[in-house]
Amino acid sequence: MSNSSSISHFLLLTLADTRQLQLLHFCLLLGISLAALLGNGLIISTVACGHHLHTPMFFFLLNLALTDLGSICTTRPQSHAQLPS
Asked: Is the pTM of this model over 0.90?
C-alpha cells in the first residue's frame, strides 16, 4: 500500500498579526528576492560577456542561474501575494 497524497501549495497563515511585522516580513522577502535577482543577473552577464568563460562548466552555471531566476520570478510574487493584509 503506497501513499498517494501530494501537496500542491501551502499558505502562511497568521504569520504576522501586526502591521509592523507584516511590513518587516515583506521587506525581508523583497530584499532576498532582489539580492538573488542581482546575483543571478551578475552571473548571467559575466558568463555571457566573458569569451574565456564559454566552457562547459560556465555553460551549466549559466543554465543554473537562468533556472534559479525563473524560479524566483514565479515563487516569490506568489509568496508576497499570500501575505495576510
From this structure: no
